[in-house]
Write a structure and sequence with these properties.
heterotrimer; A little secondary structure; B alpha+beta; C mainly alpha; A: little secondary structure; 6 strands; 13% helix; disordered N terminus; B: alpha+beta; 4-stranded mixed beta sheet; two-stranded antiparallel ribbon; 26% helix; globular
Chain lengths: 175, 292, 424
């Protein structure tokens, strides 16, 4: 699906709304009706944690790689942790943003761009509507989710689930 | 008017007898009960009103029955990512609820098979009754099976009364008011997709989904066959099937095969795709694929 | 053929009906006991069926995994019995072999009762018997020629009709002391030969044509159906003619019986050979589809319910073949009857349960549900067999005296006249 995905962002808190990027605009985009929009809900932040600048604005930046002990101790990084730590993805100078490897800033609402740096194939499938959960209308507005709605960015592997009950085995009458 | 090559002048008596025969034929075929397949629009409307009234009387629920026809230029298809499914059975129960399947005796249109990775897709080693504390299990993968909406459907071919057929949008449907319950279609189906109402179906009144389609999830009687219809009541209204929406891992994909920009076309063109029991030449509209 | 005027016809027919009823009501103790036993089975079957209609087919042991069972197995077996009338017609009419000719009529009566049972077995198997008319145009819709079941409905009813017309015509004419109309009977009898092959072939194709069921999807199925039918049908008939010979003045030459037994031996050989060929292909090639054959003969994953039946069918069929192939053996009445029973039982097992259940086990998705009939199914089936035997018995009760010239119009009308006179 070569569609222009204009992500409508309903998140007032995000500064990105003022700088909407057409994240991917392949050639075939013109074939899609201009009115088609893909709604992506707000990123699943923990209660009260965003904007990050609320706390970080007044804090000096410490770029030393270390284990956090005062805050964010609940976050356990299991995502290529040998090579990575917080500031590889979170922007140190503007905490309300993420950044790509190039240093380019990315809003939390467009975090898929960050994920796509390594998982390019997944990003491509996601754009095509093939990776990820699908809601909405198959012939209209398709509901998209951000990567982080399903995958915790810090521990992206899916957690095991309890399955719903197995079907009943066929029973003979009177059994 | 021709009879045996000889042209004869129509006489008044001939006309009268033919008119009488026509009238009798009309009375027999037009007024009597009929397959919904060939029911003209007006009669279909009336049949649907009757259905709604009967549901009101019998179930005490205001069930609305849609008669939405196929959308021109649409042929539905489904794709399921075998590399993602974790066997959680969320789809099974979403389907049961959406499509008014009997809770007792239990009918489930989706069956999730647990298979062993070192055996591959081997039905003789499949287990639909797996019940570990958590899924996915080590060394297993999962193959959910439901109606494959075959292009070469063996089930519609064998039906002696023409009570099941393929709609223009590719959905294989059943006329629950015409099915005689001979179960020949069940013997013919290579996917175990068809289910029989061995007893009067039971659904708690509060759990009945009142948004139905006459060829889909409207409540069924005892003694007839039923099956997945790609949630015809939802998909003909533009929505995704219930199983697609519920899937927590995004395994299930759905769309219009005739739309070259649809995700289903993307999958067929870009992924490793397979159909179950390909050698039987049933040509399913239900594809399995490996995204990774 | 002189045509009766309506009044005459009705009077004649009433005479026939009245005489028939009197014949049916008359009988010795054994006859009455037999009827009483059938009556008990019929009532029991009817009650069980009423229950099944009320509560649904959940009362059977059939489920989505094994969606056809005992009923359809019996249906298949009985189509074979019905078709077997032909094995007698061929030598009798085609080769004009007189000794068998006398029992062709009874073969046809047997076919009539067997088809009746077939249709009843289908009726009790369907989920909505109240909708059976959906099959019948113009109100209904018969999916012809696409559905093999539609073909089966047609050929079975046509075959029933042909046999019914031939048998009633011969009897009615004999009742009036006239010979049957050759111009009617001979073409119909000749037609009934391909039709008998036809009903059984179509019934085999019913299963054969399903790509989903490898156990049935073998081109050997139709020939094997015919071979086994030519064993089971005559097996019943041989017992029946011996009973008739014993209890009525009906005569049949021993050579006729022996000849039929000999033909049965050949048919049984063919049947065993075809089964062997199929088993070889499945087991030696060892493809995926061997599962079904394996389930029948050896059991699968610890499921062995049907294995004893499989081997008893093989044993019984072998025994029957051995007994009938040796001329001295088949001429011994005790041995002959043992052979008949062995044939009947062997074919009944292999063609009923042995055909339907392994065809559906494991199911399309590999699940094994071990089916065996429920009490409801057994009762309903026994009831249907009882109806079939009752119809056959009553038809014989009328047909035998007519063909022996004991029950004719002359006697009836003179009786009637005397009754009428007495009434004055």
């Amino acid at each position: 699906m070569r569609l222009a995905i204009l992500i409508l962002l309903g998140i007032a808190a995000s500064g990105a709304a003022s700088d909407p990027k057409a994240p991917f605009a392949p050639a075939a985009s013109a074939e899609r009706p201009a009115g088609e929009r893909l709604d992506v809900p707000a990123p699943p932040f923990s209660e009260g944690i965003f904007p990050c600048s609320n706390c970080h604005a007044s804090m000096p930046v410490n770029r030393t790689r270390r284990t956090l002990t005062d805050m964010h101790t609940d976050i356990v990084l299991k995502h290529d942790e040998a090579h990575r730590w917080c500031l590889d993805c979170h922007d140190a100078t503007n905490r309300d943003f993420l950044h790509l490897a190039s240093g380019e800033r990315v809003a939390f609402t467009e975090s898929y761009l960050l994920c796509g740096q390594c998982h390019g194939e997944k990003l491509r499938d996601w754009r095509a509507g093939v990776h990820g959960r699908r809601t909405g209308n198959w012939n209209g507005t398709k509901g998209y989710l951000l990567c982080v709605h399903c995958h915790s960015p810090h521990q992206p592997r899916f957690r095991a689930l309890a399955p719903l009950p197995a079907p009943a085995r066929p029973a003979r009458p009177g059994d | 008017m021709e009879t045996d090559g000889k042209t004869t002048k129509p006489t008044r008596r001939m006309f009268a007898s033919q008119a009488a025969a026509l009238a009798a034929g009309w009375v027999l075929t037009a007024c009597g009960p009929k397959r919904l397949y060939e029911a003209p629009r007006a009669q279909l409307k009336k049949a649907i009103e009757d259905m709604e009234r009967q549901y009101r009387e019998r179930l005490g629920v205001n069930v609305s029955v849609s008669d939405a026809p196929p959308i021109p230029g649409v042929e539905f298809a489904y794709a399921l990512d075998l590399s993602r499914c974790i066997g959680c059975r969320r789809c099974v129960y979403a389907c049961v609820k959406e499509n008014n399947q009997s809770r007792d005796p239990q009918i489930q249109w989706i069956k999730v098979l647990s298979m062993e990775k070192d055996k591959g897709i081997d039905f003789s080693a499949a287990d639909p009754y797996y019940a570990p504390a958590e899924v996915p299990e080590e060394g297993h993968f999962y193959v959910p099976v439901q109606c494959q909406q075959c292009r070469n459907s063996p089930c519609t071919k064998v039906c002696p009364t023409g009570a099941t057929w393929t709609e223009k949008d590719g959905i294989v449907v059943i006329d629950y008011d015409w099915c005689i319950g001979c179960r020949y279609c069940m013997a013919a189906c290579p996917y175990g997709a068809r289910h029989f109402n061995w007893a009067e179906p039971e659904i708690p009144k509060a759990e009945i989904n009142p948004n139905t389609h006459y060829l889909g999830n409207r409540p069924r009687p005892k003694g007839v066959v039923e099956k997945c219809t790609f949630c015809i009541q939802r998909t003909r209204a533009g929505r995704y099937p219930a199983c697609v929406e519920i899937c927590p891992v995004g395994t299930r994909k759905f769309g219009n095969l005739l739309d070259k920009d649809s995700e289903i076309r993307y999958i067929i063109e870009h992924k490793r795709v397979l159909v179950l029991k390909e050698e039987l030449n049933t040509a399913p509209r239900f594809f399995y694929f490996y995204a990774t | 053929m002189p045509l009766d005027n309506p009044a005459q016809f009705i009077r004649r027919f009433l005479g026939f009906a009245r005489g028939s009823v009197r014949l049916i009501l008359r009988g010795n103790r054994a006859y009455r006991l037999w009827l009483a036993a059938l009556g008990v089975l019929i009532v029991s079957g009817a009650l069980a069926y009423a229950n099944q209609v009320r509560n649904g087919l959940a009362l059977t042991a059939m489920r989505d995994q094994v969606s056809w069972g005992f009923y359809i197995g019996n249906f298949t077996f009985l189509v074979g019995v019905a078709a077997a009338a032909v094995v007698l017609v061929i030598p009798a009419y085609v080769y004009d072999w007189k000794p068998i000719r006398e029992i062709v009529l009874y073969g046809e009566l047997l076919a009539i009762s067997a088809i009746m049972m077939c249709l009843m077995f289908v009726m009790v198997d369907i989920g909505r018997p109240d909708r059976f008319w959906h099959l019948i145009p113009p109100m209904g819709h018969l999916n012809f020629p696409s559905s093999v079941l539609a073909w089966d409905v047609l050929v079975l009813n046509l075959y029933f009709l042909v046999n019914f017309v031939v048998a009633t015509h011969i009897l009615y004419r004999a009742f009036h002391g006239r010979k049957y109309a050759k111009r009617l009977v001979i073409p119909l009898v000749l037609l009934s030969i391909p039709m008998a092959v036809g009903i059984h072939t179509v019934t085999a194709f019913l299963y054969n044509g399903l790509v989903a069921r490898p156990y049935w999807n073998s081109s050997i199925l139709a020939p094997q159906f015919l071979a086994s039918a030519f064993c089971s049908g005559p097996a019943i008939l041989l017992v029946v003619v011996q009973v008739l010979r014993r209890f009525t003045r009906f005569e049949i030459r021993d050579e006729a019986i022996w000849k039929i037994a000999e033909l049965m031996a050949y048919a049984m050989f063919l049947n065993l050979f075809l089964h062997g060929a199929e088993a070889f292909k499945e087991f030696y090639s060892g493809g995926q589809d061997v599962l079904y054959t394996r389930y029948w003969y050896l059991g699968l994953n610890g499921h062995h319910t049907l294995v004893p039946y499989a081997w008893s069918a093989v044993g019984l069929n072998l025994l029957a073949f051995a007994l009938f192939i040796v001329p001295a053996a088949r001429r011994n009445w005790v041995i002959l009857n043992i052979g008949c029973i062995a044939t009947y039982a062997g074919v009944y097992i292999e063609k009923g349960m042995g055909l339907i259940i392994p065809g559906l086990t494991p199911d399309a998705l590999g699940e094994i549900y071990e089916y065996y009939p429920s009490v409801t199914e057994l009762r309903v089936a026994a009831g249907i067999f009882a109806v079939g035997f009752l119809v056959f018995t009553l038809m014989l009760k009328v047909a035998v005296p007519i063909s022996l010239g004991e029950f004719t119009e002359k006697k009836e009308t003179s009786d009637l006249a005397s009754v009428a006179w007495a009434g004055h």
